Amino acid sequence: MNLSAKRILIVDDEAKIVDVIKSYLEKSGYTTIEAYNGKDALDKFKKFNPSLIVLDIMLPDITGDEICRTIRKISRVPIIMLTAKVEEEDILKGLNIGADDYITKPFSPRELVARIEAVLRRTSDAIVPLANIICFNKDELVIDSLKYEIRKKGEIVNLTPNEYKIFMTLVKYPDKTFTREELIYMAFGDDFDGYDRTIDTHIKNIRQKIENDPKNPKYVLTVHGIGYRFGGESDEI
């Protein structure tokens, strides 16, 4: 396992617990990201794209259950729940909403690291990282995520910052059909100032700039009654 690429998001409102988990994970070769409340956890999930999340259930603003449900709408990232609850019903609830494992407090940090490694081994094939440069349709469309640059037939596509965020959200989750609300949340978080139907205008503009035939798109597709998804298939390199 290449640990250098493994970033673990630790979410707990108790700083001492975060520090202990961070120490053990870093000794084991992982990189850590810390969050002490639900909003910060969701913001850092979107920003850093962690390989796994260690998630406390009892947080001061948003519960771990709610965070898990939110993330599961758009990502298969492994989640290990931390909780002081030991009732079987509570554990089953966490697993049913999408948690990959469950560990109760107080816990052994060494056991937690072992659980993390086991979950990562079990789920590693299910997570496909986004390459820095992606080509579609024999280089007709090329995305360079390091340069924040998109080219169509060799020419730079001038997307606005909002259009770029929306388009890259769709590209990042090619198997996901987004509702307008989900697309707003993943692209902008709480910073979006507008109505959900504003997304339709952005999508129309993206199609005008990216598609050969905007009325018959092949990259940004409409799923009637639901929302939008990405339809491109990357070239084999």
Automatic annotation (TrEMBL):
May play the central regulatory role in sporulation. It may be an element of the effector pathway responsible for the activation of sporulation genes in response to nutritional stress. Spo0A may act in concert with spo0H (a sigma factor) to control the expression of some genes that are critical to the sporulation process. One of its GO terms (cellular component) is protein-DNA complex. Residues 131-232 bind DNA. It comes from Caloramator quimbayensis. Residues 7-120 form the Response regulatory domain. One of its GO terms (molecular function) is transcription cis-regulatory region binding. Keywords: DNA-binding, Phosphoprotein, Transcription, Transcription regulation, Two-component regulatory system. The keyword DNA-binding applies. This is Stage 0 sporulation protein A homolog. Residues 131-232 form the OmpR/PhoB-type domain. It comes from the Bacteria.
